[in-house]
Amino acid sequence: MGLSGSHISRGAVVLALGFCIVFIHYSVRYSYGILLPEMLVTFGISKLFEAGIIYTSYFIGYTAFSFLLGLIINRADIRKVVSVFLLILGSGILLMSLSNGLIEAAISYLLAGIGCAACWVPIVVVVQRWFEKKALSVAVIDMGATIGFFLSGIIMPILVKVGGWRLGWQLFSLVSFALSPLTWLLLKSHPENSPQKKGESYKESLRHMVVLIRDLRLWMLSISYMLSGFYVMVPFTFLSKYALHEIHIPYSVAAALVSVIAVGAIPGKLVLASFSEKAGRLKAFVLSGIASIVGISGMIFASLIQNTASIIMISSAIIYGIGYGSLWPLYMAYASDIFSVERVGAVLGFLTIFFGIGCMSSPPLAGLAADLTGTLKTSFLMAGIASLLSILSLLPTGVKRKL
């Protein structure tokens, strides 16, 4: 069926808006690790476990509300939901910029996590309604995440020098507030003339959810997603601190390593997403996992060769980025491959619970491991093992039927 010019232009607006929303979402999420060294000084925190607690608070809010939104996504007006949650996100980050201690920062980041809950699953669902090539369309909006932390790694150190770490959070707050009215005006939940089924009753939604929960594939996909959340958060929380204090790289360079990950994530996102459309999702997942493990291994061994440590760290960050960049398009598309369009909102909400568990547990556990052993290498080793297990967990998920 051909596409009208109007459909294409409206779809482009939805795609561009989704890109911007995902951009601010992941900029907020991953800038914490970049700003962490300066925040620790202000808060008087010396234990990495405590630093991990702040990050965990974000994922508590994000996980709980992502699941709730996944359950009601087929009944709710996504345009209104995302607009309101962007205001919550902006408020949380503004409060974060005003925090002076552990408790204040944890509560503020919890609020930001609640706001971010509407900035991924609902956007993914809308984009997949507009475009047939699911992995590629999600990869395009996911580029917002990649560019977000790429720019964060460059801009945040500059803002720290100009006005301190608080200025970085204030900038994100301003962008979040600006996106809210734009979303209200421009986001279209469904393509025009597309068949729209009447929303299910909550009783029907619950019955279908029970059917989904009995499916082994959902559990194995969820476990894999949880392990991915765990290993992804180790570098994004502690890479800058690790490079600064154990590899002895200057702060400006250590912070920029997050941007280097983005350099690898861009081709990883697009190439592996395209590869998965032809060769299959599982093969793409294997390649993604190999890249992540190789990159993490390079980070661990970089300190052993001090003369070339910076080069090794940069190379490892690029390789890691290739694996990281492809994860979200692959998981989102694979969930749609296995389950029907009508069920995918609930499925993504369910997956996000497990992803959130992985993300919530990662910073404090990785920080505790570093506190006990005296090195973040232990934390990165944990991340490499989790990456391997995430791929192995996908093996029983062969597509048989849609639910």
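Above is the first protein from milestone M3; the second protein from the same milestone is given next.
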Amino acid sequence: MTPVVRRILALLACAVALTACQVDVTVDVVVEPDGTGLITVSVVADAEVRAQVPTLADDLVFDDVIAAGWSIDGPNPTDAGGLELQMSHPFRSQGEATNLLQSLGPPFTSMELGRGTNGDITTNRLSGRLVLVDGFGSFADDDLVAAVGGQPFATQIAATDATPATSMSVTIRALLPGVINEDATNVEPNAGGVLEWAVPLDGTVLQWQAETTQRPGEGHRWARPVSIAALVALIAWVTFMTLFIGYVAIARWRRARRYRRRNLPA
């Protein structure tokens, strides 16, 4: 999948670098018990970015992103005077989720959502490397570099001494079904069960790693009592109908017997 989302991040990153402002990126991965889910990318630029680049909202082009199946909300003004953009894409399988995560581009590399079942236990796994190797240059893909003949605004960015680590924050969060395997997960969940990683932007590498296990009925705890109630109701109905049919059969047999007796010759 063409990394179309990273082009949006590239433009925002360049705007931030050139204006010495701040942009915050959050990626949310939500996996449902059946393996489907949603990936959401939220980008918030502060009020200084909006003031320095007032045409930023109009400069963002989403044709490729929409063509790739992403839904766009924004850019919308924030209460603090900045801009917020939200992009979301559902997925129906682990393969589709992996492709979507890979399409984000740096600092998200070798990203994968795995899911497998052994017997009646399903395992969900996240893995990947969170690293920004080449600073702002990491955001520009080959097509963009070829189009402009090099990294966009490379000279201007170099003159500002801005770096991704000083101008941006990137966070990725995940909500997985089942019970977290602490030995295979390198962050602690918050009170809502959400796992959160702060992505390093200074060239260091952070492993994206988490694992959960689902047992039958997890995520659908209401199903067992409902199924038990339905089974009890079915048994009661079958028992009632059996007794009723038996009662009707005996009553008809007795009525027929009395009728025959009345019609016997004296």
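Note on the second protein: The longest helix spans residues 223-262.
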